[in-house]
Amino acid sequence: MMSDKKTLALNAAKARLLAVQMVYEAASGHPGGSLSCLDVLTALYYGEMNIDPADPKNPDRDRFVMSKGHCSPAVYPTLALRGFFPTEDLKMFRRIDGHMSGHVEMKHIPGVDMSTGSLGQGISTAVGMALAGKLAKKDYRVYSILGDGEIAEGQVWEAFLAANKYKLDNLCAIVDVNGLQIDGATKDVMPTEPLDDKFRAFGAHVITIDGHDFDAIFAAFAEARATKGQPTVILAKTVKGKGVSYMENNAGWHGKAPNDEQFAVAKAELEAVIAALEG
Amino acid sequence: MGEKIATRNAYGMALAELAKNDSKVVCFDADLAGATMSKYFLDAHPDRFFDMGIAESNMQGVAAGMAACGYKPFTNTFAMFAAGRSWEQVRNSICYPGLNVKVVGSHGGISVGEDGATHQCIEDFAIMRAIPGMMVLCPCDANEMRHAVEALINYEGPAYMRLGRLAVETVTDAIPGYSFELGKGTMLRDGKDVSIIANGMMVQMALQAADMLAEEGISARIIDMHTIKPLDGEIVMKAAEETGAIVVTEEHNILGGLGAAVAEFCGENCPVPVVRHGVNDEFGRSGKAPLALKAFGLSPEVIVEKAKKALTMKK
User: Fold this and answer.
1) Interface contact flag, A125 B70, Cβ < 8 Å
2) In terms of CATH, what superfamily is B4-169?
3) Are residues A200 and A227 in contact, defined by beta-carbon separation less than 8 angstroms?
4) Which residues, at least 6 apart from A247, have a Cβ–Cβ distance to it below 8 Å?
5) Quick check: ipTM above 0.85?
6) Are A161 and B63 in contact (CB < 8 Å)?
7) Class of domain B182-312
8) Inter-chain touch B26–A133, beta carbons under 8 Å
9) For B68, which residue in chain A has the nearest alpha carbon?
């Protein structure tokens, strides 16, 4: 399934609206980093990945691991819009009588390939899936989105040591470089630059792109697929809170729900984007 | 009967052998294959063996990913690092999604010996038992270990199993009617005055203690509780009802392990004295393994003392 750019932008905008809405309705959740990675996620689910919502457990499917598992408001709407489950299910987000856990969860949500939430752990499971693909001689690919704050976890680097050792060219990790984390700017909380040199030193093929430019995103995915003998890391420069004016580039919206007024503003902004794309 | 072999060796050989018939079994180690005895698997199935280097946390996560793709991973490192270092990866990446990974911790307990406290894991039963849905095992000898490995290969879900470093006498093969079932204790010797529930190498010591008690006219029932969780409540209940006093012995902190599990169960279901025998909430120390065990009171003689204490408390 390959969508045109306008359709991709429309799907991403719809997902952003659902993301903000589910956090608003739950009065809890993580909008900032969800909004920043939604263009990459939309590109994965509407173009790059070989998946079938009618057959979510197909052993030959491509896999996706949201290593920054708090970005469930990006994953769940994307899966819902892509047809894995009804969008009404999103109303169950973070509810004790619901099945949509605060962090991405695989047992109860169709289309989720791995439960995540504890930072640094998802990428190791993605390495395991890629290793399994190599062992089984299958040609599926494994994608994983990490946060740029998340990569302070030592386990991330353990995972890339192993990805390098086993030459996992079926693994493509995307770092959502929005520059912000809970306590502030990533450069202040724990400086991680130069990211490209670090990942290169760990044996990855590194591509740096604008994470909101679909052409750049798909070009990077194509380059990753063409890269043999090593994993690829895409450094996607993004805007935290992308698409909601007052959330953009504001660390305060990492894990906070909008109030009634704030939600009305976000809704109006995103609906305007949707209307323009539909018109 | 009488063969002396460490459970880690029995494990390694059994896993390598049984994996011949199951191509889904894969094996991981973290640079300790020669000590955990996963080297037997490496030699037999090099294509299915993955050395992840000294990075236990990543190893558990990678295993989780392989399990999500239908493989049956066994991860290997020392108990200290399996249960300690990578506890949270085991909890969140393996147990929470309910993935079919067998976490194997070799070199459990004080009998690690010379390496000392940093490597003498005496907390693994407690912290692994605390994870919802986690099965926890500690077989006592080579015969039982072979059964346990086979059962674990065929069991779908997460489990933790501790292996021992020291060669121990094989005792279960001489028990008439011995059979192995996950989650079921085995009575190795009947007795009427007191029950001694043990796992790992404390089973052999408990059998010796039973002989010593017999000389004093005390009849001790010996229960081999290779599965700490889920606890076999039935066999504990029967021991409580029929002998009226229980000693639990394990190479583990007296807090949180098998002794605690049995005491919890008895407190709620069949209140009888339960005397815990193990490490008294202190770190281990370097020393030759037999001497280290003795220094911490992990001996048949102390089990005898505990049995007598339980008897004095019996109504």
Assistant:
1) no
2) Thiamin diphosphate (ThDP)-binding fold, Pyr/PP domains (3.40.50.970)
3) no
4) A31, A32, A35, A240, A241, A253, A266
5) yes
6) no
7) alpha beta
8) no
9) A129
